[in-house]
Each structure stands twice: as C-alpha cells, then as structure tokens.
Amino acid sequence: MRLPGQVFLTLVLLAFTGLANADSDQACPAFFKESFLQPTNAQKAWSEDKWTRLLGEWRALGLESLILQWSRYGDTDFHSGKTASYGELLDRIFKAARNHDIQLTLGLKYDPAFWERIEKSTAHRAVYFEQRRMERAHLLEGLAHYAHHPNFAGWYLPDEIDDINWRGAAERTQLIAYLKTARQQISRHSPHPVSISAFANGDLPADNWANFWQEILEQSGIDELYFQDGLGVGKLEPTEVTLYLESMTQMPFAAAGNLKVITELLESDEQESFRATSWDRLKQNMRLPAQGGLETAAFAYHPYLNPNEGHAAAKLYRDYRKAWKRCAE
C-alpha cells in the first residue's frame, strides 16, 4: 500500500537519523531478493561449477532474481549466438540459475561511448540512435532463445538515463522515440517486461524528475524503472534520496508496482575507486526505500558481497550473512 507523501517523508527521516523505535542492531532490514551482475571478460573463465556454487551461496541469502546488466559490452559478446551451447558465460549462468531457481533478467548491449555520443547535437544523436537500433535488431536475433528458458524473467536496457541530458523538449522527444523503438523491437521476440535504470545528479527538482519518468514510461512502453540511490558513488545525500523517492511514489507508475530502487553496496576509498561499504551504512541506506514499501535490487553482490573480493567485501559478507541468519531464525 502506498503511503501518503508526508507520512513517507517523516518515516524515512526518522529511520535514517536513528530515531525509529526499533534498535538498529536488532531490527531486521528488508534483505535483498535481487541483485545486478556485470558480466566481465574475467568471468568468461569461470567454470559451470563455480557459477553453480556462487549462485547457490546467493540463493542461501535469499536472492531470488539476478539482472545481467549486459549481454554485450562494446564489441565483446557474452552469449553463444542463436542456440544455447552452455559454452559461453551467459549459458553457464542460465544453467546455474535453473539449478537454484533464480530468475534472470537479461540486459542488451552496453555501449561505453554512450555518454560521449548523447552529449552531442540532436542530429548526431539521431544518427547514433539509428545505429543502435540496427545493432539491437541483430543482437536480439542472437538472444531470443534465452526468452524460452524457464528462468527467464525479462529484458533490461543498459542505457542509463540521467537528469541532465534530456531536460529539453526536443531531447525528451528524441529519448522517448528511441526507447519506444527499443521496446517494440524486444516485443517482436518475447512478451516479457522491459526495464531500465536511471540516476539523478540533483540537477532536476524531485517533482520534475517524477513527472519526467511518468511521461517516459507512459509513452515509450518501458515497463519498469530502477532508480539508483547514488549513495555509494556520492551523487546524492540521504535526504535528497528521500525527496526523490517521496515524489516518485506519488506517480501512477510507482502505484502500479513499476518502481524499484537500486541500493549501492559500495563507497569511495582513498584512491578514488570503490570498495564494499560497511554493514552499518548499508542498513541505513536500505531503510530509505523500505519505508516507502519499495522493492530493492543490490548493486551488486559481486564483487561487493563476495568474501573473495578483498577485506571490505569479506567483512560486509560476514556481517550481512550473520544478520540474515539471525533474522531467518
């Protein structure tokens, strides 16, 4: 049930500042049921057994679904073509997912040049978007068989949308047309839902951002929005996230259950790279969407909740696992 805006805002602020009645060390958070996973070249060498063990560990922590952020990164493919051979990375993940009853959402192509290309003129973007349309048509031919897998749950567009590049009317019209084309292309191959993610830099007022997404989803046909909280990468402060969530929960697309929040499991380190955050900080961040009744997806179990990925990740894994076991008893 959706909370009224003022009630939502008050509850979130109380939870974040530690004034909620529940003791922070004992209260059980809304543990993750979903995580993103970014396929990499290094993972191509991982065996089927390793994927089976890894997904089994995640399933034991309550994970029910996994979003593979892309099936192609630049010129690198992670799939086997038009038929499953279980020789490529995605094939091994799909097989492991079936063994552990984990649902998979499959991302399309991520273009590392996306941000550079969209910052140019409207005419330049038109040429670029036509190029992407042609690439997508070819890629979908090679991915369509995954839609018949019993654990296939839907599609994900890796083109992340921000609050800076699409504020003008012409830019917004162009974006809607681009996403609508992508949605129609996917629909020709399967009836499964299509999702996309977005992040805010704090450059667009929260109400405008919410209205922006209501328009985008209504006109493009995209089914679901994942909103990145931006807390790990330092794009937003907790109070700002609260305002954005409060505005978005007033929108029809949120009331229909088509809004989720990506909770970042990372934070900046002294070398200006990223490491796993602390369990105390993560608990605070998890409360923000939970107070509004919003579902969350973790970014990401690998590498930030993986005990084999450094000291910080190992500690977060131990603390998360301890809390999960205590709350599951």
TrEMBL record:
Residues 1-22 form the signal peptide. SUPFAM superfamilies: (Trans)glycosidases. Residues 35-308 form the DUF4434 domain. It holds the Pfam family DUF4434. Keywords: Signal. It comes from Fodinicurvata halophila. This is DUF4434 domain-containing protein. InterPro entries: DUF4434 (IPR027849), GH (IPR017853).
